[in-house]
Structure formats: C-alpha cells, structure tokens
Amino acid sequence: MKKWIFLLSLLYGITATHGLFTPEVHAVSQKSWEDYAVKETKKRYPLSQVLFSQKIWDQEKKDITVKQYRFTLREGMEDFAVYTTITFDSSTGEIKKVQVIPEA
C-alpha cells in the first residue's frame, strides 16, 4: 500500500511540475520581445520613464513576424504614448526593422 501511495505521489508530482513550467517558457519569449521594444524606445526617448506597456497586436506570415507595442512614457511632467513596431525574421529572429512612432 505504501508503494502505491509513493508511486501515485511521484506521478502526480511529475505531472504537476510539468504543467507549471510549460506556460512560463512562452511567457519568457514574449517578454523578451517586449523588453527589446522598451530598449529601442528608450534609445529615441532616453530621458523618459516607461509607465505602462501593452502589446497591441502581432502578425505572423510565412517568413516575417511583426509585433506592435504601445508604451505610455513620462518625460519630466509630460505623459505621452508611443507605438513601437518590430519586424523580424520568423525563423532566425533577426530584426529587420524597428519603428517608434509617437501617438497623435
């Protein structure tokens, strides 16, 4: 009886552990693109502070992926928003183009 309890708890532990780590891998990859977008935005607005970030959309084609983020920035006493769009090769991850456009 003790062996069955041990085996069931071991099996449950492996299943629960696998379920916990699977979604995190995808979240880390998404976060890295967002971090890259913040870095590119900070190049254009070096004195600003990022208050809020939001992924607007992404589009994946055969060989190109495009992701767009909206950042609310604060520079001094002024708050404003910018859209940062990253275009990259889907298979290699090589960045093709980055656009940082202020919200009208």
Automatic annotation (TrEMBL):
The protein's matches in InterPro entries, at most eight in alphabetical order, are given as: DUF3889
Would you say which domain of life the source belongs to?
A: Bacteria
Q: Name one Pfam family in it.
A: DUF3889
* Protein's name in the database: YqzG/YhdC family protein
